[in-house]
Write a structure and sequence with these properties.
globular, seven-stranded antiparallel sheet, Alpha-D-Glucose-1,6-Bisphosphate, Chain A, domain 4, alpha+beta, 178 residues
């Protein structure tokens, strides 16, 4: 299991950023490597994602489930991706906290099980790439908010009956039930 965590400061309050974090069009634009993104139910997202780590450059078909969306302070999701000779399962949580000066601190954590060629690169290589990609995501999202790009909240947490918690690895995602 590989674990990642970080913190990013944004200039706007959580309420002003929520629509950006839950708008699939904004996410597709800001998330590095996203080639396609489609939304089924408001908690089900399918993406095609290319990530380059060293000499490995897989293109993943990913299924993402938003397991929790609590306006304006928390998003939680699980994702599974398959690519030629690579696969991953991941869980991620982002907590948004308003700062004293009216900005936001986004604390994020992610846990992933990676297999295939990517796994052979190790946590150090994956950690460096992950940190760079996450920082790029937050910087691009903040730039869109500062530029006044319209955003509409379209994602929500899955109803409990639509999330098979037995299928999810408890180590990948911490839900209210675990």
């Amino acid at each position: 299991m590989i674990e990642f965590e970080g913190e990013f400061e944004l200039d706007r309050p959580p309420e002003a950023l929520w629509d950006y974090f839950t708008d699939p069009d904004v996410l597709a634009e800001c998330a590095p490597g996203v080639e396609e993104m489609t939304v089924g139910e408001p908690w089900e997202v399918e993406t095609v994602l290319s990530v380059k780590v060293g000499s490995v450059n897989p293109s993943f078909d990913c299924d993402v489930t938003v397991t929790r969306a609590e306006f304006p302070e928390q998003l939680e999701m699980v994702a599974r991706g398959d690519a030629s000779r690579n696969a991953f399962e991941a869980g991620a949580t982002m907590d948004l906290q308003e700062t004293d000066d009216g900005g936001t601190v986004a604390n994020w954590t992610a846990r992933a099980e990676v297999s295939g060629l990517l796994a052979s690169l190790g946590q150090r290589a994956l950690g460096g790439v992950t940190e760079r990609l996450v920082n790029n995501f937050f910087e691009d999202l903040e730039a869109m908010a500062e530029d006044g790009v319209p955003a509409e909240s379209k994602l929500e947490g899955a109803p409990e009956e639509d999330v098979d918690l037995d299928e999810l690895d408890a180590d990948l995602v911490e839900t209210e039930e675990t």
